[in-house]
Amino acid sequence: MTLIGKPIPRKEGRKKVTGQALYVDDLHFPGMLHGVTVRSLIPRGRIKAILFEGNIPWNDFTVVTAKDIPGENYVALILNDQPYLADEFVNHPEEPIVLLAHQDKYLLEEARRHVRIEYEALPAIFSLEDSLEQKQIVWGEDNVFKKFLVDKGDVDEVWSEAPFIIEGEYETGAQEQLYIENNGAIAVANPNEGVTVWGSMQCPYYIHKALIKLFGLPEEKIRVIQTETGGGFGGKEEYPSMIAGHAALLAWKSGKPVKMIYDRAEDMVATTKRHPSRTRHKTAVSKEGKLLAMQIDFVIDGGAYCTLSPVVLSRGTIHAAGPYFCPNVRIRSTAVATNVPPHGAFRGFGAPQSIFPLERHMDRVAKAIGLAPDEFRCRNFIKEGETTATNQIIREKVDLEGLMNRAFELSDYYAKRDRFAKENVAQAVSLRSQTNSLRYIKKGIGFASFMHGAGFTGSGEVFLQSVVGAEATSAGRIKVLAASTEIGQGTNTIFAQIAAEALGLDYDLIEVTQPDTANVPNSGPTVASRTCMIVGKLVESAVLGLRQTLLGSGLLKERYTQTEFQRACGEYISKFGPLKSFSQYQPPPNIHWNDEKYQGDAYGAFAWAVYVAEVSYDPLTYEVHVDDFVAVQEVGRVINPVLAAGQIEGGVAQAVGYTLYENVVWQDGRMLNSQMTNYIIPTTADIPPIRVYFEENPYAYGPAGAKGIGELPMDGPAPAILNAIENATGLSFNRIPLMPEAVMKSSVA
After folding, report:
1. What is the side-by-side order of every strand in the sheet holding 45-52?
2. Dihedral of alpha carbons 223, 228, 234, 236, sign
3. For residues 514-529, average pLDDT
4. Separation between Cα atoms, residue 711 and residue 530, nearest integer Å
5. Distance (Å, rounded) from C-alpha 93 to C-alpha 103?
6. Rounded Cα–Cα distance for residues 242 and 239 (Å)
């Protein structure tokens, strides 16, 4: 190994720091118009009239409503239920109804304020509880987007004989992705040449598919080009299909290029967020502390339209039983509709919502049966040869106890747990003896153990049939052709490392082509911790295909120098024409999944982790601060240690926000705190030192042995932090985000 495992500089780093990188708002076209969206002011109702009022030169504007759509009025995704523009009914606040375009963006904003929509209001629901109880039917026949059932063993036979049965209920709130660059798109469209869109995105082929339906055009007349993208975190998975479609509709009607860029407030109030959830656990345990049965009811709030709720629900369902062996498991899960803007993907999509309750519940169970939380987990950690909740046999070496021991050693867990307990008691006694109240700080330490499956669930990767290409130039440079996007996580860098390593070439000879549906094959979406493990493996296979072609032609020997490889490329192209190779996904052997029964091999591989959080609690202000964080994980082979550590650090920082700060405030289905002045995210003062450590256990079917990594760090911090808070305070909290107000209520109760 010469490049794998090395901190190679980012491919795009120089362009970004020198300002050469072009984001969508940096692009300008001759005659370009600006576009805006007029949105619903009510959560649910019938549109009675659209009125264009005020002293506005309306004839100078391009105006688009649902009646102007040339194709199908839905965002093609899973259930195709979300309209691009509401026609007769609106189902959530901020639902798009009218599009406007004009060359003067200031006049455009004034015009937007003078579009008045008359409604007949209809009853709405805003909580998953009301949706489950069907207080109003707001979607379909029962408000249900999707249900899953995972059944292993016979749960019902266990309860009557179980020595211990422990129950608990847990909730998680919404969370805004808050990528640094807002959503934006530019479109050029006409019937002769078709539609071309440039934008900030994660999944070019999602947009491509959606625009084909929106305009009723053949696929060759739709082109989608990713511009430099300032973060996504799932928020630019499916939503860019909406803004791209809106820009394209305005361009189609006006005959001019149209740019649409959301400001921060619009981006926050109108786009998707992490699904809120509620989970109920019922767990049977033996006298020896072994899990006998787990019954889990997992519900997520999908918002007004389905979007990606089924895949979020799926991953949450499969991760709900965690990294433990239990012979009897039943998981029922449901995604329901409410009249809030649709929720969507966010880093970890579903797993953070189900792992949080599981790891809080494991601490509760351990306490109820009189075991330390670490000892209880060690007695139940899944091992090689055992089965998960979906009856997937673990075929890789798993050493969760080893990960836990290393995390505890690095964090000084046992010594701190004992010291904090003594100091907390001593401080409380000292305070009671004082006539004047003195401020003191309580300390606590907690942990979580968890796993995260890499790639799409079950048959998802087989369904996608992702393809990656590689092309050699006459100068012997290699172009990687993939639709997987660079959104700050390091895609271009690791693809180049993988390709260079496979061919034995310099890193600088590898170029990763800009994702453009006219030029690159569909390698699938940039989601689900699949970019490195799944697409990276295809990159490796595609470039090795180039080498095999050269070997087969006789122009290259088995052992070669870089110069000889470059010369062979030039000779091949001169003699035979273009030198290209493509690789299509094939599942690893012994991977079998039953979609109907939701049983089998859910993922090709899992990443495994144990995280330890140390916290301080101030009883005067009821505030919690995370003081130290240790993250130990096994993610196969680490391709680039700097990028890998950055993924863990960023995920933990986001999860600290999810746990303690990021409280989405809803009123009648609308986000009230849609500004960075009142939607609080952690600053550098709020983030602890994040100490990242990797254990390597190469995965045979990943590039150079790598697995997925990007979503794993979102899963474990929330339960680790709340377990630490309970250790410090003796109070049990089962909802996140945990705000000081909630701590205060419990403290004075």
Report:
1. 89-90, 45-52, 115-121
2. negative
3. 97
4. 10
5. 27
6. 5
The mean pLDDT of 403-411, rounded to a whole number, is: 98
Which ranges constitute the DSSP H helices of 555-677? 562-576, 641-660
Structure confidence by residue, pLDDT tens digits, 653-689: 999 999 999 999 999 999 999 999 999 999 999 999 9
| C-beta atoms surrounding 312 within 10 Å | 28
Residue pLDDT, tens place only, 422-444: 999 988 777 666 655 556 899 99
Cα 513 to Cα 532: distance, rounded to the nearest angstrom: 16
DSSP 8-state secondary structure symbol assigned to residue 101? E
What angle (nearest 5°) sits at the alpha carbon of residue 383, between those of residues 381 and 384?
165
Residue 606 CA to residue 396 CA, distance in Å, equals 9
CB-CB contact of 388 with 394 (8 Å): yes
For 477, other C-beta atoms within 10 Å of its C-beta total 16
Distance CA 270, CA 191 (A): 30
User: 């391709």: which residue's tokens?
Assistant: 639
* 132 vs 130: CA distance, rounded Å: 6
| Position 481, amino acid | L
pLDDT digits (tens, 9 = 90+) for 372-392: 999 999 999 999 999 999 999
Q: Which two tokens stand for residue 261?
A: 């860029």
β-sheet bridge partners, residue 99: 37, 64
- Residue 498: pLDDT band (50, 70, 90) is very high
User: What gap in Å lies between CA 512 and CA 244, rounded to an integer?
Assistant: 24
- Map residue 683 onto helix, strand or coil: coil
* pLDDT confidence of residue 599: 97
Nearest residue to 307 (alpha-carbon basis) of 44, 82, 39: 82
The DSSP secondary-structure symbol of 59 reads G
Core vs surface per residue 411-428: b (16+ CB within 10 A) or e:
bebeebbeebeeebeebe
CA angle 162, 361, 387 (to 5 degrees): 65
**Cβ atoms of 236 and 202 closer than 8 Å:** yes
Task: Take residue 238 and report the two structure tokens written for it.
Answer: 């499916």
Helices (H) and strands (E) in the chain, counts: 19, 28
Calpha distance 486→464 (Å, rounded): 20
Q: What is the 3-state secondary structure (H, E, C) of 283-322?
A: EEECCCCCEEEEEEEEEEECCCCCCCHHHHHHHHHHHCCC
Give CA–CA dist 94/265, Å, rounded. Answer: 12
Q: Which residue has the higher pLDDT, 748 or 603?
A: 603
Helices (H), 610-703: 641-660
Helix (H) or strand (E) holding 495: helix 491-503
- Cα–Cα distance, 249 to 235 (Å, whole number): 22
Give me the pLDDT at residue 434, please: 63
Hey, what are 172's tokens?
Answer: 């998680």
Contacts of 96 (CB under 8 A, 6+ apart): 37, 38, 39, 40, 84, 85, 86, 242, 246
Do the strands 144-152 and 606-618 form a parallel or antiparallel pair, or are they unpaired?
unpaired
Structure tokens at 406: 């290393």
Average pLDDT over residues 36-63: 98
3-state secondary structure of 747: helix
- Cis-peptide into 737, omega within 30 deg: yes
Cα Rg of the chain, angstroms: 27
